[in-house]
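Workshop exercise sheet. Pairs work together: one partner reads the sequence aloud, the other fills in the structure field after running the prediction. Swap roles for the next sheet.
Pair: D.N. / O.F.
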Amino acid sequence: MPYNRMFERLVEAGDEPRLTGLLAYALYKERKRDWMIRFRGEKGRDPTPQEVEDYVFSVGPHELEDFRDAARRMVGEAAESYLAGSEDALRAQIADEVFAGHAAAAVTRLSDAGEAAVTAVADEHRRLATTLSGALEGLGNIWRQLGMSILGAFAYSFVLLVLFLVIRIWGTGLEPLRQAIGDGG
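Structure field:
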């Protein structure tokens, strides 16, 4: 059976995290396995190598993106579940410390959690301020460039107007040449 490059297409291609690609590949393998089971049920035999190759070839870009999307959702759900569990565990630990008479430890733990949250918010604020500052600085450059472009357009128009007036008033100085051509001479 020829080698198919589905692993490379799902795991090693693009900028997805490896875990997401591996999950997408597992979902592809699961769907392929389901196809093989259905095939056996319908035909009463295993698919030939050519039939398997045809199946693999039939998996198009849209299906690959479906596998990646499902894998992203799975990773996101796992992360949310882990974070929710961590939050619940922290709350339970603080409650246990308070009920056990260790209010100072609970306050310290809450204080540490609060400091971490404040630090995270401050870091995000700094990141946004830096991004906004860069964007505003870029806008200043845009306005300066726009002003220079407008000034350049006016200067160019003025030069054309002066050139037009000079030619209109004094002529081109090519009258003898024009007459020579017009006379056939």
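Discussion prompt: The mean pLDDT is 73. What would you look at next?
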